[in-house]
Amino acid sequence: PTEIKKIACIGAGYVGGPTMAVIAQQCPHIQVTVVDINPQRIADWNDEDLSKLPVYEPGLPEVVAEARGRNLFFSTDVEGAIRESEMIFISVNTPTKTYGVGKGMAADLKYVELCARQIAEVATSNKIVVEKSTLPVRTAQAIRTILDSSSINGDTGASNKKAQFAVLSNPEFLAEGTAITDLLHADRVLIGSEDSEGGKQAEQALANIYANWIPREQIITTRIWSSELSKLTANAFLAQRISSINSISALCERTGADVDEVARAIGMDSRIGSKFLKSSVGFGGSCFQKDILNLVYLCRHFNLPEVADYWEQVVTLNDYQKHRFAKQIIDSLFNTVSGKKISFLGWAFKKDTNDTRESAAIYVADELLQDRAEIHVYDPKVKAEQIYADLEYLQANRRNTTQENGQLSSEEIRQLVNVHQSPFDATQNAHAIAVLTEWDEFKTYDWQKIYDGMLKPAFIFDGRNILDREALKAIGFELTSIGKG
Ligand code: NAD
Ligand code: UDX
């Protein structure tokens, strides 16, 4: 059908939750059911108290309040949702593999494969299967193979053709922290389809859904491989801009230039553009590093070593930027942070999210902990258990094994890392403050009060270049910013 009435989404995470909430809000005539194998996540999505939603996103509670219970449902009944729906979004996680072939590089597709197998097993009517997760090029082929083999009876080998499937690629371009506006006002919606009549019909059905709020000319259609590759390419280009400006920040520090001035000057060239040129302690988030490593892996697989090396450098430079920041803290504190109290303002990978995946804070903390620093964290949205889990995960899954990093036990981590509910507690008697996330509230603090509570000299390392340099220096802080010589 080209008019879909029932949608299922497998995966109620940072993408599945907000995306489906917006579809349900914009399309009251479509029933949207989001399912997940994690019962706690589903319970949180169903919580009466909207501040308990598992994803923190500005504007999300309002959208959920409007649609939930009307035409938006969250459930653990994956099979039921598959059976009932005409269109199924796969929006499960695709993290970097931590084992076996492609370890540390390739995307782990086991969750996607499980979804395809489950759809194949359960479906008794025709389904449009939509890849919403970010996937390597040609994954649709694998999904198609699994779905098609379902119509063949395992015991008899006979074809029962109980259901037919169309596979679409519909990558998501939202950024966390701005997910709702990004979804409502997407620059473009991308739909890749198979080159067949069924493929074109499915493409139209999905385009019709988005057309409820996205102008038709911004809904673009391509071949399925191009769509899959466009997602990896978009993230690689965005991350490349950050690594480019961060590389220049190192040069600025040596030469006395100011990276923010350089960014402003080049950004006014309309060919370059001003966005994504904010130098920082390094990019984080669940997407950039994972997707670039995946791209690099694909290039090596297709025997394109020069292309692989080119993109890998974006990640290498990002590792360097995080390391540089940590090293600068240690160097400035007279070459050791052992036993010293270092306050972290921010742990999330960017402002306005509670997501911490690949946050620069984790890597900077790890380096300081190797030198036995005492770390005191304040983040407005991240829970203490998440911070401990992040550090423990890094101990177990270090990508860069060439670094001479020792293993820290869970006990050591819990001894050395403290999490606070207030920035003033976190900075009391601190030797230094490091700003890791650009939360707006950090700019509004009574910095004189914070200064008074710290040990002297009072160091601040602004990893986001958000603080008022002149004002802090006037108070007496020893301030170090990124890319300001
Ligand atoms: P997430 O980890 O927040 O959510 C994934 C959810 O899928 C989890 O809740 C997990 O329990 C569930 N899940 C896994 N296997 C399942 C199964 N077999 N059945 C039911 N549920 C299952 O991940 P995310 O950040 O939402 O990312 C999802 C995908 O979207 C990834 O491929 C990612 O690359 C892509 N993406 C993410 C973003 C982003 O900003 N986070 C943006 C664009 C694209
Ligand atoms: C990114 C893409 O922007 C989005 O299109 C895709 O769908 C998912 O991946 P996300 O990771 O959520 O989104 O946030 P983004 O705003 O891209 O920021 C990623 C990281 O780069 C953050 O750590 C951020 O602080 C950092 N960053 C961003 C910079 O350091 N400088 C910048 O100029 C921009």
N→C terminal distance: 62 Å
What's the CATH class label of the largest domain?
A: Alpha Beta
What is the makeup of the main sheet?
8 strands, mixed
CATH superfamily of the largest domain: NAD(P)-binding Rossmann-like Domain
Main β-sheet, spatial strand arrangement: 3-2-1-4-5-6-7-8
Chain oligomer state = single chain
The number of helical elements comes to 18
Overall number of structural domains: 2
Overall CATH architecture of the largest domain: 3-Layer(aba) Sandwich
Number of strands: 14
Helix content: 40-55%
Q: What is the CA-atom radius of gyration, in angstroms?
A: 24 Å
**What amount of the residues lies in strands?**
5-15%
- Report the structural category: alpha/beta
CATH topology of the largest domain: Rossmann fold
GO biological process, one term: glycosaminoglycan biosynthetic process
Keywords: NAD, Oxidoreductase
Catalytic activity: UDP-alpha-D-glucose + 2 NAD(+) + H2O = UDP-alpha-D-glucuronate + 2 NADH + 3 H(+)
Organism: Sunxiuqinia elliptica
